[in-house]
Amino acid sequence: MVTDTAILEAVGEVADPEVPVLTIADLGVLRGVRHEGDEVVVTITPTYSGCPAMDVIRHEVELTLNSLGVDGRVETVLSPAWTTDWMSESGKAKLVEYGIAPPTGRGAVFLSLTVRCPLCGSPDTTELSRFGSTSCKSLWRCNACREPFDHFKAL
Amino acid sequence: MNDLFVYTLRLGDDALIAAQRTAEWIAAAPQLEEDVALGNIGLDQLGQARSLLQYAGQVEGADRSEDDLAYFRDERDFLNLQLCELPNGDFAHAMARLLYFATYQHLLYEELRGCADEMLAGVAGKAVKEVAYHVDHATQWVLRLGDGTEESHRRMQAGLDALWPYTAEMFESDDLVRRLAVAVDPSTLQAEWERRVMAVIDESTCSRPVASYQHSGGRTGRHTEHLGYLLAELQHVARSHPGATW
């Protein structure tokens, strides 16, 4: 019998296909595990409604369950809605290392907080576009080192 | 037909048809950043459509999937607003439509996220934050174009004027929304919608649009001629190769 903790640990290691440095546990996309009779149900939640990574994540979680010998399925839940608060502190640190500025506060979505350049650390940066390479990111440029970079948007 | 099914279909069809039109901008927008932005906005709309149509299928209980509802219904079965199906026109038209539609969706989802139907409330709670970005994006462009050059001002005004006669349909109330407890009666959103949209139009230096006639009919399946062409493109592959997977 595989324990819930072992299941969560194993499926939590599934990587986000679009930001492979993050696992779904880091992102807060993994919500939990429950039992329905003999079946294990793993629940995940999308960052954005249309996030195309969800299909891949669902498939990877199913493969992980199979490899554990667990009879289970994956369920997508929308509520409570995901926010960047679900992202772990270690996840945010991994993002910076990967060259993506992590989300800064939430709530005041359109308040311009300083986004630090993940490459040189300068706070002197400019937003180029509120929409970036994936739904969850915006595009910025550092005025100090002149490098463009992605910022994980606060949601 | 089941009221909840029809209501969910209305919301889902709005999102699906809007997503299809938005996606048409990809690789055709005036700059690369805008291709990316509209691609993301279309993806948000498509994601909302998928959740809503999937739920509509469950509510109906006739074993229809989100794909069945998107690909295997005909024009008269679609219940979207005519505003969503109109051809794109130029970029100013697109931003006028996004301002009108996203502001409406934002007000609607804000109300709907507190409704007693757990699934609709969940979709709305998720979507409201995405749509806030859409409103902001449209607002920035309407201000920039309206308060820009003589030519950009002329085009922004033309876009706002051309789509105005399709805005009243968003706020039409009918027996169904009055009967269905979880539905938001859209007529309750109109005053706040006008206040928000007019504030943007005023600031953009454009004049407030007026219309002597307002179109209507989408909610009962009466559409402009444009929806048929849109569906032909949207549904072609699924209908030519039914059951295909890839």
From TrEMBL, chain A:
Residues 5-75 form the MIP18 family-like domain. Residues 112-153 form the PaaD zinc beta ribbon domain. PANTHER family: 1,2-PHENYLACETYL-COA EPOXIDASE, SUBUNIT D-RELATED (PTHR42831:SF3), FE-S PROTEIN MATURATION AUXILIARY FACTOR YITW (PTHR42831). NCBIfam families: PA_CoA_Oxy4 (TIGR02159). This is Ring-1,2-phenylacetyl-CoA epoxidase subunit PaaD. The lineage of its organism: Bacteria, Bacillati, Actinomycetota, Actinomycetes, Propionibacteriales.
Automatic annotation (TrEMBL), chain B:
One of its GO terms (cellular component) is cytosol. Coiled coil: none annotated. InterPro entries: Aromatic_CoA_ox/epox (IPR052703), Ferritin-like (IPR012347), Ferritin-like_SF (IPR009078), PaaA_PaaC (IPR007814), PaaC (IPR011882). Gene3D superfamilies: 1.20.1260.10. One of its GO terms (biological process) is phenylacetate catabolic process. This is Ring-1,2-phenylacetyl-CoA epoxidase subunit PaaC.
